[in-house]
Amino acid sequence: MIGISGPVFRPGDDGYDGERLGYNLALDQRPALVVGARAAADVAAAVRHAAGAGLGVAVQATGHGISAPTDGHLVVDTSRMRGVTVDPVRRTVLVEAGVRWHEVLGAVAPHGLAPLSGSNPEVGVVGYTLGGGIGLLGRRYGYAADRVRRMTVVTADGQLREVSAEREPDLFWGLRGGKDNLGIVVAMELDLVPVARIFGGGLYFPGESAAEVLHAYAAWTETVPEEMSSSIQLIQYPELPVLPEPLRGRFVAHVRIAWCGATAAAEPWVRPLRALGPTLLDTLREMPVTETGSIHHEPPMPVAAYDRNTALRELAPGAVDTLLELAGPQAEAPVILEIRHHGGAYARMPEVPNAVGGRDAAFMVFSTFIMPPATLPDLREVHATLHDKIAPWGTGGSFVNFLGIDDATPDRVRACYAPADYRRLAALKASYDPANLFRVNYNIPPAGAAS
Ligand SMILES: Cc1cc2nc3c(=O)[nH]c(=O)nc-3n(C[C@H](O)[C@H](O)[C@H](O)COP(=O)(O)OP(=O)(O)OC[C@H]3O[C@@H](n4cnc5c(N)ncnc54)[C@H](O)[C@@H]3O)c2cc1C
User: Fold this and answer.
1) pTM, whole model, 2 decimals?
2) 36 Cβ partners below 8 Å, 6+ apart?
């Protein structure tokens, strides 16, 4: 293809399947064209080609966050763009679009610095950050998007733009939260935080104590300082030899923590959790930031996942009982439930405001499950019931990074933003992408367009 240095794949080409599929296999996507971009100029040429050919444009780095089906559209695959440049003096890292978190962790850790990475080090830096980025140190340092310094972006007109608080400030505001609705980011500079080691890991309680542990966890979160970020997962582990022996085939309440204060100061906060009873496994320890990807214990291999999420105002006892009824050990439901503690720095708008939503949330409830064995109709029903029943404790919102394959609808996307921010994003979309070229995503239609 003219002007593109990287490979281009069409249905039937060798390598097409490897390019079109990523981590989440829930959609069997069949794009018309996949452009394996090697450089910013490739991204710009691909965008111009799509506009000329009447194709919608999707962007994929790792496939962890699939949204709307890419069938018949053009996919820009950024996975070949892997540059990472650390500036230890300014405490920043500059990444290209295809970089994954483990690459940044490895590059910045020798300087005693950390990024605001999330639970899984295989996730892409740029996609994660443009959706907010709910990280392991988030209650102390906020969303990853709050620490973006500048970006280079290709907009729908095929132009390459430098964007920061000073240059194109409206676009800078909207990209941070609006994901790929306003353009494809080819490079991003992020501020790092001075954290070399953290105290973290997991306490894996047996299913018998799930109710007591979940109620105690909810109460405990009301007492902890911002240095403590945490979550809890309720999961029925399969009988798999790759799992640690004590967890195989067991229902587990897994409390995960990441404490970024002095290790000695973590002890009083951890004691009440450990006192909740015998654990199947206790992996809490001081660790270098390069090992923080172990805390959530997530599957490394591609899976077909069905996801939904709800932002909560509070985790009141009634909410805990509801979640236990629908996802606890007795429910025997196709639900893996995760509750992440928000508040702290998440609630504060950064110095240079952005479009990230959910600042009013005290928690996120995320439900997921893997297909097969579960079927899509079953998952739709069970997860819809769960999120409907938890809604009385909700903010009415949800988090764009944790949407799933059923969420690429105008209402579900709108719910991820404060109403005024959504209107501003739609107005920006009308000005930067009036034809909605970037529509193969959690779409924000241009203001004035029928939705
Ligand atoms: C196992 C797992 C763990 C996760 N943990 C966390 C977590 O702890 N915190 C959190 O906040 N999220 C988390 N996520 C969600 C994740 O951040 C989002 O799915 C994110 O979109 C993934 O980005 P990606 O590039 O890896 O995925 P992809 O599927 O390749 O991209 C997903 C989307 O990101 C956007 N995007 C990617 N690259 C660009 C680009 N260059 N320019 C513009 N937009 C782009 C696009 O909207 C694209 O559709 C997790 C997801 C999984 C599957």
Assistant:
1) 0.98
2) 6, 7, 8, 9, 19, 77, 79, 80
Residue with tokens 């300014």: 90
CATH classification number, 197-402, choose in 3.90.1150.10, 3.40.462.20, 3.40.630.10, 2.40.50.140: 3.40.462.20
pLDDT at 451: 53
The amino acid present at 99, given as its one-letter code, is V
Residue 3: pLDDT band (50, 70, 90) is confident
256's enclosing H/E stretch is: strand 251-259
Q: Determine the distance separating the centroid of ligand 1 and the alpha carbon of 213, expressed in angstroms.
A: 30
Token match 């080691």: residue? 197
- Å from CA of 294 to ligand 1 middle: 18
Phi first, then psi: give them for residue 51, nearest 5 degrees.
-60, -40
Q: Which among 81, 123, 126 is the best mutation to test ligand 1's pocket, defined by most ligand atoms within 8 Å of the CB?
A: 123
Distance 279 CA to ligand 1 centre (A): 32
In DSSP terms, which residues pair with 204 in a beta bridge?
Answer: 254, 281
pLDDT per residue over 70-101, tens digit each? 999 999 999 999 999 999 999 999 999 999 99
Handedness of CA 4, 77, 406, 343 (dihedral sign): negative
Please determine, for residue 247, whether its predicted confidence score (pLDDT) is greater than 60. Answer: yes
CATH number assigned to the domain with residue range 8-77, chosen from the 4 options 3.30.1330.10, 3.20.20.70, 3.30.43.10, 3.40.50.720: 3.30.43.10
Q: List Cβ neighbours of 84 (8 Å cut-off, separation of 6 or more).
A: 93, 94, 95, 96, 99, 103, 104, 107
Listed in order, the ranges of the chain carrying CATH 3.30.465.10 are: 84-191
Report the nearest atom of ligand 1 relative to the CA of 97. Answer: 41
Residues with CB under 6 A from ligand 1: 22-24, 59-67, 78, 97, 118-120, 123-124, 126-128, 130-134, 179-180, 184-185, 298, 401, 441
DSSP-derived pairing of the beta strands 8-9 and 228-236: unpaired
Query: How far is Cα 161 from Cα 226, in angstroms, rounded to an integer?
Result: 36
Q: Among 24, 62, 128, 399, which residue has the most ligand 1 atoms within 8 Å of its CB, making it the best to mutate?
A: 128
Handedness of CA 199, 201, 207, 211 (dihedral sign): positive
Residue length, the chain? 451
